[in-house]
Amino acid sequence: MFEITNLHASIEDTEILKGVDLTIHKGEIHALMGPNGSGKSTLANVIAGHPAYEVTEGTILFNGEDILEMEPDERAQLGIFLAFQYPTVIPGVSMANFLRMAVTNVRNARAEREAGDGEAKKMTPREFRKLMREKMQVLHMDESFATRYLNEGFSGGEKKRAEILQMALLEPTMAILDETDSGLDIDALRVVSEGVNALANDEMGVLLITHYQRLLNHIKPHFVHIMMDGRVVQSGGPELAHELEAKGYEKLRAEVAATA
Amino acid sequence: MVATPKPQVDIGDYRYGFRDEEDYVFKSKKGLNREVIEEISRMKGEPDWMLEFRLKSYEHFLKRPMPNWGSPAIHEIDFDDIYYYIRPAEKQGKTWDEVPAYIKDTFEKLGIPEAERKFLAGVGAQYESEVIYHSLREDLEKQGVIFLDMDAAVREHPDIVQQYFGTVIPYADNKFAALNSAVWSGGSFIYVPEGVRVEVPLQAYFRINAENMGQFERTLIICAPGSYVHYVEGCTAPTYSTNSLHSAVVEIIVQEGARARYTTIQNWSKNVFNLVTKRAAAYKDATMEWVDGNLGSKVTMKYPAVWLMEPGARGEVLSVAFSGDGQHQDAGAKMVHAAPHTSSQITSKSISKGTGRSSYRGLVKVHPGAEHVRSNVICDALLLDETSKTDTYPYMEIEEESVSIGHEATVSKVAEEQIFYLQSRGLSETEAMSMIVNGFIEPIAKELPLEYAVELNRLIQLEMEGSVG
Ligand SMILES: Nc1ncnc2c1ncn2[C@@H]1O[C@H](COP(=O)(O)OP(=O)(O)O)[C@@H](O)[C@H]1O
Ligand SMILES: [Mg+2]
To answer: Tens-digit pLDDT profile for chain A (260 aa)?
Structure first.
């Protein structure tokens, strides 16, 4: 249902992605690992539609539809979600106000799709507030979060939690989590992982971008891919992550170079 | 005489650009001379001192050159091409049913009677030159609060008016104050007796309807010791291809321990020159707060001021300006520390879009001997695109050593990352932009009563629509 083929992308005329192939089916959790600078965040941003990147070749199909010409908001409304590695601060915009608009837009778009020609059932402000309170409890977030400004003065862990809260409210069918584990202490990692596990379901594809094996002890992937220098160089089952942990990236790089 | 309706110029997203057909009791000839002024004064049945004040002011207006700073566009104003006085109705209504039906309809469209029912303690509604409706909650009247239009105050409370009128802003203060002093009509008079706190806002609404109209209301507010009042003004006008002029004078006296807050949501159509003088004098331990929202108009030049006259006086200005295509908002604040142990805060936020330009112009002045003065100025400008402009003119005249003065200014552009972040959560580019802009002014919006904060956000939303492409 989510299929990336021969994806090339550049930023400021430097090619970063050099032919990425990756297919994720409903209900699957994929881990994407790789050294710093290999292009993992670039891939995530290109999927979400970041305007700074130019796609020079390849396709991304989501449920058979090419999303590359779509605006980021259209992609979000189709069910694509990216939990950012470095979420942006937006001063003066409260979490609750922002999320109300986001959730309303995404849910209403979905309701309209599902209703076809029929009458879409829109969400009321009251329903939104109830939903937000519920999801915040699951993620052990204090109620005061709702009135804080988006990512302003958030600790590293709070930012990551806030990203997962957004995911919980937007209920994507394709979720990409970019280094959601970095900067979390062990308790926070457990809460966030439990949140993700609770959200992952048979209808959802997940791409977990991570540097470390650590996260994969909490969220079990079905497939593991290794990215180097803008390409997926190796794919396998969960054992690949362990192998990588034991060997390190340098050894793997040498092996890949030798077989290339 | 009933004028035939003219086709309106493009009013864009400005939803208050509609106009009424004229059906007036009196409309002066275009242009200004002694006869026009004498006529205004005679029609109002004014005492001699007021006519003398008007004529003296007119002499000064003639002599005084145009300001050579601010917006160069003000030199386009043709003082001979303006109607200085229009009386829309014979008498003022105490209920909306006593107001001519078409004028009542206009204020219904502007939402004033509804706001009055829901959250206001009193309302004055001015249409062209006269206040055509006035009300004050009975309990406040019983407590001795006076809330009248300025003309009625001259008739009914001549002693207080003569004592204070023109004392905070003398007629010779500047060219437009002189003009207002010569031809003023309408505006509000408020007197809050000692210790009385008016917890619910009083509001005045100013509507220009005629083409080439000049509106010159005059407001005087006196807060007796220990009292409190929050006064709110709103304004709109039809959109015409020719220019209109709005030039008000607002004087406020905040006596010992009293507090006054004056909130403006200026939303004139984009053919109005808005050149206003606003100044308050704050005495011992008194607080004066100006909350100034400037969205509409072609040009606004407005710098609400507080003169801090005695120890413990505090002044604050919160100013938001939005300059869209073809607009110049030249706004800011003045704080004059004339006594020791006084403090002031200026927070200015401006947003510019398209060919719009926002200027911050401010003055902090500390008189010799005004020891232990504290003042802080923050001005932040946000540019929405590559073409919009902003500039700052922060003047400081500090003639005392032992003072603490802070000044911070920032200019920022909406970051691509912020737009992308919000879009990736399902907001359209326009929604994302509006949300960022509303976040930018949040520190000021949160100071407003909820209804006005909602209104301000909504107006900004309207300005933003169609702004990205
Ligand atoms: N704005 C940019 N301009 C130029 N190069 C960039 C920019 N952003 C990222 N890069 C480069 O792209 C490469 C991939 O970065 P990134 O996708 O963040 O890697 P990862 O997430 O795997 O650590 C790096 O070499 C980085 O320096
Ligand atoms: Mg990264």
So the answer is: 899 999 999 999 999 999 999 999 999 999 999 999 999 999 999 999 999 999 999 999 999 999 999 999 999 999 999 999 999 999 999 999 999 999 999 998 988 888 877 676 777 888 888 999 999 998 889 989 999 999 999 988 899 999 999 999 999 999 999 999 888 888 888 888 998 898 888 899 999 999 888 889 899 999 999 999 999 999 999 999 888 888 888 888 888 777 76
Please indicate, yes or no, if residue A215 is contained in any of the structural domains.
Answer: yes
Question: In a 10 Å sphere around its CB, with 0-12 CB exposed, 13-18 middle and 19+ buried, how is residue A19 labelled?
Answer: middle
Report how far residue B390's alpha carbon sits from residue B351's, in angstroms, rounded to the nearest whole number.
Answer: 8
Exposure b/e, B75-101, CB count within 10 A at least 16 = b: eebeeeebbbbbbbbeebbeebeebbe
d(CA A181, CA A5): 27
Quick one: which atom of ligand 1 is closest to the CA of A179? 21
Q: How far is it, in rounded angstroms, from Cα B91 to Cα B149?
A: 12
CA distances in angstroms from B193 to A125, B251, B286, listed in the order given: 43, 17, 15
Q: Is the distance from the beta carbon of residue A16 to the nearest atom of ligand 1 less than 6 Å?
A: yes
Report residue B456: phi and psi, to 5°. Answer: -60, -45
User: C-alpha angle A204/A208/A214, rounded to 5°?
Assistant: 130
- Within-domain flag for A192: no
- Considering its fold, how many domains does chain A have in total? 1
Top residue of A42, A98, A103, A169 to mutate, by most chain B CBs within 10 Å, is A98
CA–CA dist B204, B112 (Å, integer): 9
**Interface residues on A facing B, Cβ-Cβ cutoff 8 A:** 48-52, 71-73, 75-77, 81-82, 84, 87-88, 90-93, 97-98, 101-103, 105-106, 109, 149-150, 166, 170
Q: In this predicted complex, what is the ipTM?
A: 0.96
Contact yes or no for B426/A73 (Cβ under 8 A): yes
Range of the domain at B449: 421-469
Residue of the nearest CA to atom 4 in ligand 1? A11
Pocket residue to mutate for ligand 1, from A15, A41, A210, most atoms within 8 A of Cβ:
A41
The CATH number given to whatever domain includes residue A62 is 3.40.50.300
Cβ contacts of A128 within 8 Å, gap of 6 or more: A99, A100, A103, A104
CA of B203 to the centre of ligand 2 (A): 54
A88 and B418: CB-CB below 8 Å? yes
Residue A193 within a domain: no
Sign of CA pseudo-dihedral A74, A75, A78, A80: negative
* Cβ pairs A/B, distance under 8 A: 84
The answer to whether B440 contacts A72, with C-beta atoms less than 8 Å apart, is no
In a domain, B460, yes or no: yes
Between CA A248 and CA A35 the distance in angstroms is: 9
Q: Give the closest ligand to the alpha carbon of residue A38.
A: 1
Residue B469 lies in a domain: yes
CA A38, CA B265: separation in Å to the nearest integer? 52
Report the number of distinct structural domains present in chain B: 1
Cross-chain Cβ contact A91/B429 below 8 Å: no
The best mutation among A8, A10, A11 to test binding of ligand 1, ranked by most ligand atoms within 8 Å of the C-beta, falls on A11
Atom of ligand 1 nearest to the CA of A45: 17
Domain-located, residue B251: no
Tell me, what amino acid is at B160?
Answer: I
Taking the CA of residue B28 and the nearest CA in chain A, the distance in Å comes to: 49
Nearest CA among B28, B302, B58 for reference residue B183:
B58
By three-state DSSP, how is residue B195 classified? coil
In a domain, B465, yes or no: yes
Nearest residue of A to residue B446 by CA position? A92
Domain containing A223 equals 2-186+198-259
Cβ within 8 Å, pair B426-A106: yes
Name which residue sits closest to atom 3 of ligand 1, judged by CA.
A11
